[in-house]
């Protein structure tokens, strides 16, 4: 069998399992209305929660830095890729998160992998939420520690696992701050208490909470008033740019700088991205008005969908999962939304449990009232047509 025949067979299996994916092409900057595969759609699936990806202040800052520093950083942080902008941004992030210091990675994905593959040692155990993001799962797989899964956001299940794992040298609880597929907020206050009682450490991936939760948008730690041992974040969602970071104590950052392979062997993000992200954090910190606007939209969408009779999961976060049921109907629903000019994807097993296929709406502070109204009217009409609501 030739190389390509072998791969064709494998991709056929992916298709048969209904897991085949393709790309769609965007021809406009990230904003509520975008041209997708040549057709204008209202986007309800973006992580650009505060609308910063196309913000003029960020663009201006980026252009100035671009002219001085050029494009790529041309090296890893430990060789020639470390510019004053990387250091300025790290100081800004640490100050924003109220931690001693911060370390930049090229993405949130690589930050998770870097932390989880280097921090726990052989003989340790990682207690991981059942619905943690793929980058946490991959990080756990690369770790020398064992992994034990606890039920999603279930603190009784976590406590049970903590009781069962007393023989391990160290225990690390690892969780998403806001879960990407169901919009739930991890109960970090209870988790921190359990960690203290059972002598465990807490690692939080605040990718979806950074810029969103808490008065100053500092994430789950501010929302609950707690300080986890390690917090991971991304600059690619609410901050609208790219890059990941870890915040915590000076010794933690010193350790990661010396041991996290995704830090050591990766080319640093371009200085232009650092400068834009710096400007984004300034806006986020003072951006309470944007968060209030966003929360108002979240509340309107959730309340209206529930009143129509839809089952809606999640908490007060921009991720609004609307449960449709079987996978086929969810895909049909999403296609009908597209016909109505709306892009919101169907999420199916194995990403979510059987019978819980859903439309995953994400809303941003830059959606306007008429776009939200159009979304709600479309949901009502399609929901009735497909007999999901009466
Ligand atoms: N963690 C979570 C929970 C995420 O949803 C994502 C992005 N989908 C990441 C980490 C990865 O972040 P980045 O896009 O910066 O690699």
From TrEMBL:
Its cofactor is pyridoxal 5'-phosphate. Residues 42-378 form the Aminotransferase class I/classII large domain. It is an enzyme of class 2 (transferase). It comes from Salibacterium salarium. GO terms for biological process: biotin biosynthetic process. Homodimer. The modification N6-(pyridoxal phosphate)lysine is found at residue 237. Its EC number is 2.3.1.47. Belongs to the class-II pyridoxal-phosphate-dependent aminotransferase family. BioF subfamily. Keywords: Acyltransferase, Biotin biosynthesis, Pyridoxal phosphate, Transferase. This is 8-amino-7-oxononanoate synthase.
